[in-house]
Design goal:
Layout (H helix, E strand, L loop, with lengths): L3 E7 L5 H10 L3 E4 L6 H10 L4 E5 L11 H10 L3 E8 L2 H11 L14 H18 L1 H5 L2 E4 L5 H13 L6 E8 L10 E4 L20 H8 L2 H23 L4 E8 L5 H13 L4 E6 H5 L1
Parallel strand pairs: 1-3, 1-4, 2-3, 4-5, 6-8, 6-9, 7-8
Helix pairs in contact: 1-7, 9-10
Length: about 290
């Protein structure tokens, strides 16, 4: 029996517990905060028990041992373990807000750091940036999920969809977003489509989205939109083989417009349809799910 291991790492406050609960609901045997020194021994034990699917969460609480993890992951892959590595991230402002709302202490913040509100916030930001440095190597080897604008139910659904798509050699994740709310930090490629005709200025289309047929019909009649769709598809078609040869499991393609409601959503829908025949595809509409 091939053992499938999902490793969840990421920033404190980014939603690792939510992701782990989603995998537990999906039938994975889950372990939180496993010390990195025990990773290979734990997987070997689960293989003896013929456990098919295991999910493990690690974080900066094991900071001293984290440098061991990349070599251990490589060793597990050589042993034939099907390994999926996910890294949950969020913007610093989002993490600061989440810690402030829950009144939790960041694991790298020393007790008593700062007395005044400004001092506490400064200490928290410093702890978050230190954590980013400590986790940089793990982030570089994982599929990054930006949770800055995702609520817990959406994150759970997205993690389940992501894991279910892993039978394919490469999964293309198409994500729409609004430039006015920032570029997704999990994007591998970003395309700006703000120069295309905007349905927002059509009164009958303003309250609809790119998933609605009237908006799709309007954009489908615009030569510039058709050309942009063809150009992005051609770029990905050209480099898809190289991405596969690079042993990529996931590639996130972000399409941005002004409000993330019409043009970017429409293009994500069309691109996902175009590539569905040759690769596993997932769709995310950041501004629609965040509403």
């Amino acid at each position: 029996m091939t053992t499938e291991v999902v490793l969840i790492t990421g920033m404190s406050g980014s939603g690792k517990s939510v992701a782990l609960h989603a995998l537990e609901d999906a039938g994975y045997y889950c372990v939180d905060n496993l010390p990195p020194e025990l990773l290979q021994a734990f997987v070997a034990l689960e293989q003896q028990h013929r456990a098919g699917r295991v999910a493990i969460a690690m974080d900066v609480r094991s900071a001293a041992s984290l440098p061991q993890v990349p070599a251990q992951l490589a060793a597990l892959r050589r042993q034939g373990v099907q390994l999926i590595s996910l890294f949950l991230d969020a913007t610093t402002d989002t993490l600061v807000r989440r810690f402030s709302e829950t009144r939790r202490m960041h694991p790298l913040t020393r007790p008593g750091d700062g007395n005044a509100l400004d001092d506490r916030k400064r200490a928290l930001v410093e702890a978050i940036e230190l954590e980013r440095d400590l986790l940089a190597d793990l982030r570089a080897q994982a599929h990054v999920i930006d949770t800055s604008m995702i609520r817990s139910p959406q994150l759970q659904g997205y993690v389940k969809s992501l894991i279910s798509a892993t039978a394919s050699q490469l999964t293309l994740v198409f994500e729409s977003f609004a430039f006015k709310r920032g570029i997704p930090i999990d994007a591998d490629y970003v395309f700006d489509v703000r120069m295309l005709p905007n349905p927002h200025y059509e009164p009958s289309l303003r309250e609809l989205t790119g998933c609605d047929e009237p908006v799709a019909a309007f954009l489908g009649q615009q030569p510039e939109v058709t050309r942009m769709l063809g150009d992005i598809a051609h770029f990905l078609d050209t480099w898809l083989g190289a991405l596969v040869r690079d042993h990529r499991s996931y590639v996130t393609v972000a399409i941005g417009c002004t409000g993330g409601q019409h043009r970017s959503v429409y293009l994500v829908e069309r691109l996902a349809d175009h590539f569905a025949a040759q690769s596993a595809t997932l769709k995310r509409h950041r501004e629609l799910t965040a509403a």
